[in-house]
Design a protein that fits this description.
The complex is a heterodimer of chains A (275) and B (170). With 275 residues, chain A is of the alpha+beta class. Chain A has helices at residues 14-24, 37-42, 78-82, 87-90, 92-97, 104-107, 112-118, 124-132, 149-152, 231-241, 252-274; strands at residues 7-9, 28-31, 50-53, 63-66, 69-73, 135-139, 144-148, 153-155, 158-159, 166-173, 180-186, 196-203, 206-212, 219-223. Chain A has three domains: 7-52, Uridine Diphospho-n-acetylenolpyruvylglucosamine Reductase, domain 2, CATH 3.30.43.10; 60-173, Uridine Diphospho-n-acetylenolpyruvylglucosamine Reductase, domain 3 (2-Layer Sandwich), CATH 3.30.465; 180-274, 2-Layer Sandwich (Enolase-like, domain 1), CATH 3.30.390.50. In chain A, α10 packs across α11. Classes of the chains: A alpha+beta (275), B alpha+beta (170).
Chain lengths: 275, 170
């Protein structure tokens, strides 16, 4: 349970970081808080030749509001966003998700963008980003691009991040008045990865339900209004469409049942918050 | 800063328990191993080495954090506190440690250093912490002996004592 050896670079500028990532090819990795990456290093599931520590890059350590978006830089720790004064007003879904996200001890170090980059299929931040319809800003030495969250997560711990690229920031759409938000999950132990996590948004157009922990990535679905006759069928269809599998944590059947019950609860709560 | 070669040890300067230290470590060395093997402070225990059990919890810049999920390289310039910093004197326990002893908040003691460091940070940041806050902080730790109830009682007693000391006339 010790990492294999790697070179280490703690650059003073973003340009220096991007150059090192470009030169390192696929073997160079960014390290920020390390709360997802260091377990992978310890178990030698990741064996990078170079780690680029981005935590000294002040430009990445900002939370900014720009138009309808809250932009969270790659160096912002989860605890910093959790303590951000406008969180419950501008990002109520995240305010509801944070208590489920790891532990105080891991949120103190782990970054928001690090969890997005890790792309665990049951993680709370990727689920929140996808449900809100957010986006990810990617940067390499050659280009900057913006990818919608739903296109960024492409599979189990797999993202659209290309060789030499790093996440510069994530963009969360700001809460609008008259919208309701809710988040719940079921896990073995408080703070563990979820067996199933559910995020819901209710707005004037209808309902959106995000589900993590079932498919190989977080998925989001539009739904009819709660009092609609087809509502239960719709949520059941979602449960069956999700490619649930048996593993040591839970059976596929139990996961589908959690999608139905957690989904219904979060959608109800989001609708209540809206009213 | 230059690129640090994997094959060599590199100097890491940081503050440990209030004193400036300069330690040598390979890039791949974890903070938990730096503390125990290079510096010789074995109070920080190593359990699972993937961030689940919480035994290795220390404070980095005042916040509780997993030493096993932190590379030694990442604490350059930081302020690290370990369980060795709690007792004011080798013969005197800190109020939190004394409360653990009084309330049987430990049996085998393996998880205790990590739990103490989390609760010490909690009681400093939130002197009015109640049962739920304490339980929330404990959720990041595994204890296989106590069943946690005595740990919660110890922490509540320490919090109460700390509040009395801060407002002696109340």
């Amino acid at each position: 349970m010790k990492p294999a050896s790697f070179d280490f670079l703690c650059p003073d500028t973003l340009e220096e970081a991007l150059a090192a990532l470009a030169d390192g090819g696929g073997d160079a990795r960014v390290i920020a808080g390390g709360q997802s990456l260091v377990p992978m290093l310890n178990m030698r599931l990741a064996r990078p030749s170079l780690l680029v520590d981005i935590m000294r890059l002040e430009a990445l350590r900002r939370i900014e509001t720009s138009g309808d978006e809250i932009i969270v830089g790659a160096g912002v720790r989860q605890a910093e966003l959790e303590a951000w004064t406008d969180l419950s007003r501008d990002l109520p879904l995240l305010a509801a998700a944070f208590p489920w996200l790891g532990h105080v001890q891991t949120r103190a170090r782990g970054t928001v963008c690090g969890s997005i980059a890790h792309a665990d299929p049951s993680a709370e931040l990727p689920l929140s980003l996808v449900t809100l319809g957010g986006a990810v800003s990617l940067r390499s030495r050659k280009q900057k691009r913006r990818v919608e969250a739903d296109d960024f997560f492409i599979g189990m711990m797999a993202t659209d991040l290309a060789e030499g690229e790093m996440i510069e920031a994530v963009h969360f759409p700001k809460a609008r008045p008259g919208c309701g938000y809710a988040f719940r999950e079921v896990g073995r132990r408080h703070g563990d990865f979820a067996i199933v996590a559910s995020a819901a948004i209710a707005d004037e157009k209808g309902l959106r339900l995000g589900i993590a922990g079932v498919d190989d990535r977080p998925r989001v679905f539009p739904l009819p209004a709660l009092d609609n006759d087809q509502f239960d069928d719709a949520i059941n269809d979602i449960a069956w469409s999700l490619n649930a599998r048996d593993d040591i944590h839970a059976s596929a059947r139990y996961r589908r049942e959690l999608v139905r019950s957690l989904g219904r609860e979060t959608l109800k709560e989001a609708s209540r918050c809206r009213a | 800063m230059p690129r640090l070669n994997a094959a060599r040890k590199h100097t890491i300067d940081f503050t440990l328990n209030g004193k400036a230290v300069s330690a040598e470590a390979e890039n791949r060395m974890l903070l938990s191993d730096l503390l125990r093997h290079e510096i010789g402070l074995t109070g920080t225990h190593v359990g699972c080495e993937h961030g689940v059990c919480g035994a290795c919890t220390v404070q980095i810049d005042g916040k509780p954090a997993r030493a096993c999920l932190t590379l030694a390289q990442q604490v350059r310039g930081s302020d690290v506190r370990t369980v060795e910093a709690l007792a004011p004197d080798p013969a005197v326990l800190s109020p939190l440690q004394a409360a653990f002893r009084r309330h049987h908040g430990l049996q085998c003691g393996f998880c205790t250093p990590g739990i103490l460091m989390s609760l010490d940070a909690l009681l400093r940041e939130q002197p009015d912490a109640g049962r739920e806050d304490i339980r929330e902080h404990l959720s990041g730790h595994l204890c296989r002996c106590t069943g946690y109830a005595t740990i919660v009682e110890a922490a509540l007693a320490a919090a109460e004592e700390q509040r009395k000391e801060e407002t002696p006339n109340a």
